[in-house]
Amino acid sequence: MKPSRAKLFKGLNLTAFSLVMVFLYIPILILIVYSFNDSRIISGWQGFTLKYYAQLFSNPTIGEAFRNTMLIAGLSTLISTSLGIMAALGLENKRFKARGGLLALIYTPLVIPDILMGVSLALLFNFTRVNTGMVTVLIAHVTFCISYTVIVIQSRLEGFDYSLVEAAADLGARPHYIFWRIKFPLMLPGIIAAALLAFTLSIDDFIITFFTSGRGFDTLPIYVEGTIRRGTITTINALSTLMIGFTLFLVVITKRIRKILISAL
Amino acid sequence: MPQSREALQEKRKNLSSWLLSLPTMIWLACFFLVPYLIVVFYSFLTPDIYDVKFEVSLEAYRQIFTDGYLQPFFLSFKLAIYTVLICLLLGFPVAYYMARASEKLKNTLLILIIIPFWTNLIIRIFSWRIFLSYSGVLNEALIGLGMISQPLEIMRTNLAVILVMVYVYLPYMILPLYSVLEKLDFTLLNAAMDLGANEVKAFFRVTLPLAVEGIFAGTLLVFIPALGAYLIPQLVGNQRSLYVGQVITYKVKNIPRNWPMASALSLTLLLMVAILLLIMYAIYRRHLARRHY
User: Fold this and answer.
1) Which of A35, A127, A130, A241 is best to mutate for the B interface (most B CBs within 10 A)?
2) How does pLDDT run across A78-112, given as a tens digit for each residue?
3) Which numeric CATH code is attached to A59-264?
């Protein structure tokens, strides 16, 4: 095969890619380095310290925010993934009468800015006089996760090899046996990808939580924003570094998860 | 009779589809559709210090069009457009490079793009504050190198907002572009060049038209969150000229509260997004109609 003659763009693209990599990683690297900087304000390098990590672990507010975040992320992942599996199986039937309506309901939240979901849910809870707190945050998180879980699981079912199911049926397998032994295992990568996506979206969310959490129920992003606003940022660098470490662990070190994530793109 | 058995089976399949999708339908109806109906309802009420008075009023809408509330919409719209354009200019060559890399390299490059994307949003914004602030890393470095004598004041400007928005939303542009460019048949480019097109012409006549779907998807994925952004302008933006997201949030969070105003502003923003989607859809339809291959 003749090599491509598109030479000009090749050099240009590599340059662009390298620049973007620098752009994407420099702030994160600085953040990590500064978590070890012995200074109470944003300033030049003042010497190495681990004291902000120590403060991080002895701060009960951060501990509570961390537990709240994990609780909400875990529960909203569980609920939204379960609903997603069911809805995706329901959507499998192309002649389902409400298919178009359900798809519209699932895709619309994706093309509306997050802040509007936050405002509308805040209004709902105000109108119905529900006290905001853990339950309202959980409801909000499930609501914005559902669309993603349904779509990821459904896109996996689109390319599903039904001949396996038919073969099992021809061999006399019962429907629930077919589902749990053949279909579910084949759906599993999609389900894991959906669950991971829901979990990350939940941990990451600030604005919708901001509108739906009452006083006294802080997740980590809410805590971090409040701390930045008050100007006491000493532990935030350390906290951020640990959270980046968690992401790296999830994406880089766990090879299987990485494969699933790439295949889900 | 086989036909009635088929009809019965069809009915059963439809029923099971209903049962499987009903929980999601009910959830989204209660927590997605109904809240918007309440937004519409509240936008016609009268504000109270903490709550609303159930008296019909068009005051919120009148204020939007007369009291300078359109300014934040223009600002948000302008900065979101800039963000999309810069993301497109930066994202295209990056996606192109990734799409033409060897299979083994591709996955590594994808991971490199995804890691920042999977890092907590507020942390990424915060890291820019360290980088850009008055006594931050950039200023220290530039002064250290003798390139400037006074620290640059980039923090709390529209430039900082655009910079951080590009940083945060760039992967949303790169990933859809990558997925169309990866499927692109690059022999078409060589064919165009064999037929006498130069590299630039081949790019505009072959690559770009085939990547339109990715450009549309990326544009939407960047534009929509950029338009409704709150956290980025709040943390790095100029607090004298507010973003729509900030105005809406203040109306809900600050006392005296103004739920009707927040609702009316939200609906205006929603309308903007809807108009944009319709325009994009119309352009996309025309593009498909003109395509003959």
Assistant:
1) A127
2) 999 999 999 999 999 888 989 999 999 999 999 99
3) 1.10.3720.10
pLDDT of residue A1: 36
**Beta-carbon separation of B24 and A9 below 8 A:** no
The alpha helices in B29-69, defined as continuous H runs, are 34-42, 59-66
Distance from CA of B57 to the nearest CA of A (A): 18
Secondary structure element (H or E) that encloses residue B265, with its range: helix B259-290
Kindly report, residue by residue over B138-161, the tens digit of the pLDDT.
888 888 888 888 888 888 999 999
The distance of B4 to chain A (nearest Cα, Å) reads 17
- Is the per-residue pLDDT at A73 higher than 90? yes
- Tell me how far apart the alpha carbons of residues B202 and A86 are, in angstroms, rounded to a whole number: 47
B52 forms bridges with which residues in the sheet? B47
Instruction: Name every chain A residue with its beta carbon within 8 A of the beta carbon of B34.
Output: 124
Q: How many CB pairs under 8 A join A and B?
A: 273
Torsion of CA A97, A101, A107, A109, to 10 degrees: -150
What is the mean predicted confidence (pLDDT) over B214-229? 95
Q: How confident is the model at residue A258 (pLDDT cuts 50, 70, 90)?
A: low
Task: List, in sequence order, every residue forming a beta bridge with B53; answer none if it has no partner.
Answer: B46
Q: Å from A146 to nearest chain B CA? A: 8
Mean pLDDT (whole number) for A125-133: 93
Q: By three-state DSSP, how is residue A161 classified?
A: coil
Cα–Cα distance between B246 and B235 in angstroms, integer?
Answer: 11
What domains can you pick out in chain B, each with its CATH number?
Answer: 48-290 (1.10.3720.10)
Residue B32 forms contact with A (CB below 8 Å):
yes
Is the model's pLDDT at A16 over the cut of 80? yes
Domain layout of chain A by residue ranges:
14-49, 59-264
pLDDT above 90 (res A173): no
| A49 — pLDDT class (breaks 50, 70, 90) | confident
Residues sharing a CB contact under 8 Å with residue A107, sequence separation 6 or more, in sequence order: A147, A151
Q: Do A42 and B269 touch (CB under 8 A)?
A: no
Helix, strand, or coil here: B104?
Answer: helix
Residue B174 has pLDDT above 50, yes or no: yes
Contacts of B186 in chain A (CB under 8 A): 4
Q: Does the distance separating the beta carbons of A127 and B38 come in below 8 Å? A: yes
**Alpha carbon distances (Å) from A9 to A3, B44, B207:** 14, 55, 12
CA–CA min distance B269, chain A (Å): 8
A28 vs B116, B228, B245: nearest CB: B116
